[in-house]
Structure formats: C-alpha cells, structure tokens
C-alpha cells in the first residue's frame, strides 16, 4: 500500500484530498495528518479515521516514512515543506500555487532525487479537456486561432481577514496567482507553449497589497492569441474558457469544476462532431489516480513550471508596461525571485 499523509487540515484537505485518497483505497492509505493547530489536527484525524496526528512535519516524516505527502498548507510554506518531504524521500503532491516564485519552484525541483513533486492542477484531468486536446492534436477541429480565459470570481473583505491572504510575503500574489492559475493552466494544456504576454493589473477595491484584478494578451507559439482576465471583484462568478479554431468553437462554463454538461460545441460543418467517449469530471480524485500511476511507474509528474512562468510574465508585463517573452525571466531577473520584482508597493 502507498502510505500517504496530509499536511494542513483546512477545508480543501477534507473536501478534496481525503475523498481522493479514499477513492484509491485499493492502493493507498492515509497514515497521518499534520497541522500546527493540534486541536484542528486531532478533530480532522478523528473525523476521517486517520491513525496518527502531528504538529511538526519533520517529526511525522521521520516516524511515519510516508510514500506520498499532500501539501494543503498556505502558499508561503510550500517550498520549505516540499523540500523537507523530498529530502525524506517522500513524493509531494502540492496544492496551488506550488511556490511564490520561479526561484522557489526551481528550488523544489532541484531537491528532487528518488522522490519527486507534482502540482495539483485537477482541471487538466476531466474528460472534456482530454478530449479537446486529442481532437486538436488529430487536426479534426482545425487550427487554434483565438481564445478567451476568464476567472471572474468574488472574494469579499472578510475573505482577506485571514492574515496571510492578500500579502506579497505570504500569498505571493493576487488572483493572477491564487485564483486564475487554474484556468490559465487549462488554457496552456490546450494551446501549448506561450510566446509573449502583455498585461495590466491593479488594486481597485480590496484592501490588499497585491492586485485584485488583472488582464492580459497572450500570443502562443502556434500563432493563436488569447485574452486573459483574473478577478476577485465579480459578483456573478464564472470560470470561462473559449477556443475558436478554424472549424469549430469549443466553450467551457463552470466555477470550480466541470463535467461534460458544462461544454458547448459549435461547428461550421455537419461532419465535425463533439462526442466524448466518457464523462470523468475534473477533480482531485481524477488527478490523484494519475499521480499515483506516475508514482508506481516512477514517472516525474508536472510541477507546472510553464504555468508559473506565464503568471510571472503577466506580473512583469503589468508592472513594467513592457511585453515579456517566454524564457526571458532568468535568475538574474528581479521577477525571478518575487512576483512584484522588487516593487511590493506597486499596487498600493
């Protein structure tokens, strides 16, 4: 059995990660829960039947020797915790954002050895995206031309009452990093490598250090052009993706997860159809199955560097007012070490 542990026992751990592990009960078992809040950890373990409880990650790693660790902690903790797990030879499945900067992400990758790390990007694993990627690869929908990627969510002032939210030091960025990253990752999964980004961002309403809205234009290596909007100021919440190809338009409207019913297909020709072979919703459960397949086969999962590079480029483009090309943000670039590029006051 694959011995798994959950670090951070907040909402997403119980709602998403525990059911994902339970669905893999034929090959995975939860052996420990870790949280700095002992009472919360004890309650979480009691609710979910987890035998061991810890308030210290390294103690848990030494005593339990888990095979896989689920990191469900606040973003500013991820890099140090991921490195500690990797050094103990435990694989890491980390919630987004995996890191607060490309520097932190590369530090995690550099710590890999017998164990490796992967990012939670569960929207890649629903039937709709898998089917769309197959159709594009086969050329049956034509060439991608135009795309729209919208994360229009709403987070009120009370949401930012949690001390680590809305700060560069602890959350790393605003909705571009912490909310829109899922839809942008999905866009990249469909359209492939991006080439250039131009952007604007601002703090319009929330009392935070970071932005609360951003907008960008992205050109892809295949020539397609996309618009991207990330907002936490939108009362009617929606996650929306639209892909216009030469022979079809494919749209996805959902909020935090989708099934086949959330896709719309429009074609120029009666001979072009949309007929997915099954209906696997996007979910942590779907991705964990693939992650454990990788674990058993010894295949390195994706840590989401291309997506993090796009996020970083969007911030750089918005703050500097200049276009940013893929590959230009190297260790000498101020935006490599932080998404504000050394200008944390930019949105104040």
TrEMBL record:
Pfam family, one: GFO_IDH_MocA
Top-level taxon: Bacteria
SUPFAM superfamilies per record: Glyceraldehyde-3-phosphate dehydrogenase-like, C-terminal domain, NAD(P)-binding Rossmann-fold domains
Residue intervals of the GFO/IDH/MocA-like oxidoreductase domain: 129-245
Domain Gfo/Idh/MocA-like oxidoreductase N-terminal: 2-110
Xref: InterPro entries: Gfo/Idh/MocA-like_OxRdtase_N, Gfo/Idh/MocA_Oxidoreductase, GFO_IDH_MocA-like_dom, NAD(P)-bd_dom_sf
Protein name: Gfo/Idh/MocA family protein
